[in-house]
Amino acid sequence: MEVSSVLESEDKVDITPMIDVVFLLLIYFMFLPLQQEADIGIKLPSNAPPAESLDLPSEHIVEVFPNGLILLNGAPMDGINDRNMNRLSTTLTRLKLSSDRAGIDTVVKIQADPDSPHQRSIDVLNAAARAKITKVSFAAYGE
Length: 143
Fold this sequence. Notes:
Strand order of the largest sheet: 3-2-1-4-5
Organism: Coraliomargarita algicola
Order of helices and strands: HHEEEHEHE
Strand content: 15-25%
Pfam families: ExbD (PF02472)
Protein name: Biopolymer transporter ExbD
Radius of gyration: 35 Å
Subcellular location: Cell membrane
Membrane topology: Single-pass membrane protein; Single-pass type II membrane protein
Number of helices: 4
Shape: rod-shaped
Number of strands: 5
Low-confidence stretches: none
Largest sheet: 5 strands, mixed
């Protein structure tokens, strides 16, 4: 009788310590990300909207080609030998007025081909000056 009760007690497994360990691991992994965030000093992104919207300037790209062709935002402008560039100046003036009404700056970026005549870039600068655009930048061709 005693032998069977001893054998019977060895068949039962006490799972209480295993449940305790599982709960401890669960609590550890629940609070681990919070502790890591506090230790690193970063904030994880939230679904809150951005604090403010950025007002980007109205940027227009003027391309100068080796044959003297001028493109404003991809549209051809005055003839290749026209030094006054009235159409470019008029278009830039309209774009500047439109940007001024919206309250944003107008920026003209000149992308001149390395083989283009320098005079054409100067003509574009003159057209921007007639349009009263003061923010002009140059960029490497192909940017």
